Structure formats: structure tokens, C-alpha cells
Amino acid sequence: MKLPENADSGKTRGETKRSPDAGAPTGEKERGSEKTGLDRYDLAILAELQRDARLTNAELAHRIGLSTAPTWRRVRWLEEQGIITGYRADIDRRKIGLGVLAFVRVDAERNNASATRELEQAILALPEVVACHFISGTGTFELHVVSTDLDSYALWARAHLFSLPNVKDLHTSFSLGEVKAGAAWPLGHLQAGRAGRHGPAG
């Protein structure tokens, strides 16, 4: 998203202190009084940027009903808080030749801190592993692995997967088709009870 360099002129975020029930002039309000510190404008920004991260600051401001300066400051604040962690393009893996998606459950031989850390570092070094989760129940990690085809996956597994340290067993299944992938994070749990709490932006 393009952000103008001079968009941060004027009042800084949080400069105007008001109670949560008061109106929010120019879309600013005091933060930290609620669990997440996010108001309806922040949630609107997150929703819009999840739909289209290429929006310019002016387009984003128009969609959420604020002027450009407070919109820019809010985006910067969301980035600084680590809520927005980055912007990227969603790529269709099949169109770049990655037709196979495998789910690999890794059972660790030992579950002590040093052995688990060694296994984590080895997994992080494999670019074909596009996601890894530390799981409960049976197994220690679940890996999401991409490959061009089954033959290539088999060669990769023998060369890399089977040589991971501290592994007792591996269980692999393959995706036969994606029903839902790359969806936006839901925000409804943050919006509950917020309707009507803040007045219109000035």
C-alpha cells in the first residue's frame, strides 16, 4: 500500500484523549482502555487491507470514512504494534509449477528443549516447507510441504525429510484439492459490542 511521506502532519496518534463513549474527532481516540486497543476504524482498516493490500492511503481513507492523515497514522500504528506484519502477493502455487501439497506429521524421538530446537532449526532451513505448526496430541510438528509432482516429492523426502534430526516417525498425506485457502482473518469477535460506541469522525 502506498503511503504518502507527508501524511503524518498534524496531531499524532493518541494526542486527543477521550472516553470510549465519546465521539472521536478525526478518527482519533485514546487506546489501551480495552483488551485489544482497536476501535472500529482500526478494524475497518484491517478488513480493507486484507481484501486489497494495494489500496493507496487515499483510497483506504475513503473506504473507512476518515481523512488521509489519521488513516496513515493508524496504519503506521498497526504496523508498529505488530498487528500488520507485512504486505505480500498471493500466488497460485499451481501456476508456478507446485502441484503437490503434502501434510507431514513429524513425531520427535525426544521432546526436550535442545532436541526440539535442533529439529525446529532444521525445518526452518527447508524452503519447501511453507508452514510448520507445533501440535498437540499425536505427533510434534505438522509441516505443509510443496513440490512439483509426486516423484519430485519422493526424491526430496528421501534427501531432506528422512534426514531431519531427532525424528522417530513421519506420517504423510496429500491434498486432493483446496476447498478454502488464504482466507482473511475473521474480525467479528473484535467487532461485537462496538457498534455505536464511537461517534462519527469529524
UniProtKB/TrEMBL annotation:
Chain intervals with Basic and acidic residues compositional bias: 8-20
GO biological process terms held by the UniProt record: regulation of DNA-templated transcription; response to amino acid
Any one Gene Ontology cellular component term annotated for this protein: cytosol
Keywords, ordered alphabetically: DNA-binding, Transcription, Transcription regulation
InterPro entries: ArsR-like_HTH, AsnC-type_HTH_dom, Dimeric_a/b-barrel, Tscrpt_reg_AsnC-like, Tscrpt_reg_AsnC/Lrp_C, Tscrpt_reg_HTH_AsnC-type_CS, WH-like_DNA-bd_sf, WH_DNA-bd_sf
Domain of life the protein comes from: Bacteria
Location of the HTH asnC-type domain: 38-99
GO MF annotations in UniProt: sequence-specific DNA binding
Annotated segments matching region Disordered: 1-35
Protein name: AsnC family transcriptional regulator
